[in-house]
Amino acid sequence: MIFFNSKKRKQAVKDFFEYVKSEVLPNEKETEIVAGITIQLKSGFELIDNNEWGIAFENLGNELVEHYVIIDRKGTELVKKIIKLCKLDKKWEFDLRRINSLGYKMGSWKLTDTEKLALEHKYTFYKPSREITKNLAVGNIVKLTFEFDSSNSEHPSAERMWVEITEINGEKFKGKLDNHPFYLHELYAGDEIIFEHKHIINHNLELSEPNLADKYYDRCFVTNKILYDKAPINYIYREEPMEKDEDRDYVDTGWRILSGDESDEYMDNSENVSLVSLGAVLSIDDSFIYLLESEVGTSFERNEKGIFEKINE
């Protein structure tokens, strides 16, 4: 019985090595990665012949993990078998897929209705219109949002991934997943995904259209009383913007948004003020949107009737 189990373990590890040699290695282009895997395969086969199958697997596994080589569904099934037979750490199943969601709840994922999301968050969230998505064809790639549940509070609630379109029928699409998931356990690159226009948030078409999220993407300073404590916006002014940081894709508009009753002490503490997109503030209150083209040096205060009046300072 001991000999039989040893034989099964040896064969399981050997099967994984053959899989890496014939299906993983040919897809790698970088010389350094190919060389490293080739060395571990060669030394690993020798270790397997000496019944040191566990060491062989872990050496090859570490090489794959170090270079972010990700295994597919077939490879995962082989690894699960090795873990069970050789009594190895279950983390190998996730490390070799670069999965980072041990709290993920199996079967919980679904595609986000981004039309609804765009309506609810028009200043901060853009989804392509039907005028754009009607130009999609087989072979184009689109980005979708995959929601999921997790028992780990540090995990996000969704993962955005690309899908290559393979079939179009009106507003119904079929495609294959063009990403290796980072959170969703049961999905693999190449899996078929069925989706609709309402799920699409991005595309590889050379087309664009005006939208509020882009228009109000640039930054302003807003006090945390407004941003987090839900205080009303009563005072806004525009000063000379900060210099543009070439490492960032946004600029400072110069707008400063306050409740109006912040003390000097409060304002002197930089932790009480946040740099956010204008869209983020407009999502809270857009009653001053018509003033945003005003020139640098102008100030406005909300009067008793709730209307912003220009202040001469």
Account of the 3D structure:
The structure is a single chain. Helix content is 33%, strand content 21%. With 313 residues, it is an alpha+beta fold. It has three domains: 2-95, no CATH class; 110-203, no CATH class; 216-311, no CATH class. The strands form two sheets. Strands 1, 2, 3, 4, 5 and 6 form a six-stranded antiparallel sheet that branches. Helix 1 packs antiparallel against helix 2 and helix 2 packs antiparallel against helix 3 (53-66). The longest helix has 23 residues, at 2-24. The mean pLDDT is 93.
Output the number of helix runs: 11
Total count of strands: 12
Radius of gyration: 27 Å
The SSE string, one letter per element, is HHHHHEHHEEEEEHEHEEHEHEE
Give the helix/strand class. alpha+beta
Between the first and last Cα atoms, what is the distance in angstroms?
92 Å
User: What number is the mean pLDDT?
Assistant: 93
Observed structural traits:
six-stranded antiparallel sheet, alpha+beta, single chain, 11 helices, 3 domains, 313 residues, six-stranded mixed sheet, 33% helix
Quick overview of this protein structure:
With 313 residues, the protein is an alpha+beta fold. 33% of the residues lie in helices and 21% in strands.
Please describe the topology of this protein.
Blueprint: H1 2-24, H2 31-49, H3 53-66, H4 73-86, H5 91-95, E1 110-111, H6 114-120, H7 130-133, E2 141-147, E3 158-169, E4 172-177, E5 192-196, E6 200-203, H8 212-215, E7 219-223, H9 224-227, E8 235-238, E9 252-258, H10 264-268, E10 273-277, H11 278-282, E11 299-302, E12 308-311
Parallel strand pairs: 7-9
Antiparallel strand pairs: 1-2, 2-3, 2-6, 3-4, 4-5, 7-10, 8-9, 8-11, 11-12
